[in-house]
Amino acid sequence: MITSEEASYISSQAYLPEHVISLMVLLSRGEPFLIEDYLVFSKEDGVIFVGYPLNRDFSLIRCERVLREVMETFRPESLRFIGPQIPSFLLEFCSERQTDQYYRLDLAQLKIRHSLFRQLERAAHEVSVERTKSFSKEHEALVEEFLGRKNLTFRVQELYKAIPYYIRHSESACILNARDRKGRLCAFYVLELEAKNFNIYLLGVHSKKHYVAHASDLLFQEMIELTRDLGKNEIQLGLGVNEGIRRFKEKWGGIPFLQYESCEWAHGKSRTLSMIQALEGKL
After folding, report:
1. How far apart are CA 101 and CA 252, in angstroms?
2. Are residues 134 and 62 in the same domain?
3. CA–CA distance from 275 to each of 53, 247, 266 (Å)?
4. Are residues 124 and 149 in the same domain?
5. pLDDT on residue 147
6. Side-chain-facing half-sphere of 115: CA atoms under 13 Å
C-alpha cells in the first residue's frame, strides 16, 4: 500500500498517466505500491509494473533488479510491464508486445494554425460544448457505436469498457460533451484532472450517426481552456495508437516525448515459476 508521504511524493514527481494513483487504481482495480522509485499495482490476476522511475533516471539494470524483487515478492500469475525499454529476459515470455510513443502538449508553446481556427469557427455554429461529470446512457450508446465500427486492440477496448466504472468512482474525472443543434450527443472526451502539473486526455468518441465536422476539434479547444483554467500548462495526450490519431494530436501541436514499450505474459503458476527461474538465472 501507499503511505500519505509516498502519495505526496508520487503526486509531485508524476509525469505520465500511469503515475496518477487514483486513475490507475480505478482502471486496474489493483492496490498500489511504491518500490524504490517504481510504481506497482497488484491485483487478483497479476501485477502491473510501471517501468518509468519517478525520478526520471531510467537504468535498465536497476529496472530489472526492482522487477525481480517484485516478481519474488508478489509471485503473480501474470505480469504487464510498461516502460521505455523491455528487460531482455521478458521477451521470451511475452504473449503480447506493443511499441509506441507518449504524446504531450505544451500549452506555453501552443500555436494554432489559421486553417484550424476557421474550422473551429464553423463547428462552433453547429455544436455546443459542455463540461460534466455524468456518464449517461447517451455516452454508453456512443461508446457502443464507436466500438462496433472500430478494430481496436484488446487493451484499448478494455479501457473504453472500464470508463463507466472509473467515472462513477472518480472525484477527478471530467467529461467534455459536444452536442449538435438538436441537442444530440455527437462527441465526447474523458479527462483526468488530478495530477498536479498536467491534465490527462484519456479517450475521445465521436458519432457517425450524428456526425458534425470538427466537433472533436472543439472539444480539444475546450480541453485546452480547462487546463489553463486549472493553472496548468501541459496535457498528456497518451499514445500515438495509429496514424490517424497521431495526425490529429500533431495537428494541435502534440509531440512524441517518450518511448513506450509494453509486454504481457500469460496467466499460470507454472509460467510464474518459469519467470522466477529466468530471473534467478539471468540477473
Report:
1. 17
2. no
3. 22, 39, 11
4. yes
5. 87
6. 2
Mean pLDDT of 23-42: 96
Question: What pTM was computed for the model?
Answer: 0.91
Crossing angle of helices 114-124 and 215-229, in 10° steps, is 100
Number of folded domains that form the chain: 2
155 and 203 part of one domain: yes
List C-alpha distances in Å: 234 to 61, 205, 262. 31, 22, 24
Q: Are 193 and 230 in contact (CB under 8 A)?
A: yes
The three cell numbers locating residue 97: 508486445
Query: By residue range, what is the domain housing residue 224?
Result: 104-258
Whether 148 and 77 share a structural domain: no
Asked if residue 55 and residue 31 are part of one domain, the reply reads yes
Alpha helix (H) residue ranges in the chain: 4-13, 21-28, 60-74, 88-91, 114-124, 137-149, 154-169, 215-229, 243-251, 269-282
203: left (phi over 0), alpha (psi -120 to 50) or beta: beta
Does residue 282 contact residue 89 with C-beta atoms inside 8 Å?
A: yes
Report the CATH number at residue 218.
Answer: 3.40.630.30
What is the average per-residue pLDDT within 89-110?
91
* CA-CA-CA-CA torsion sign (39, 198, 200, 90): negative
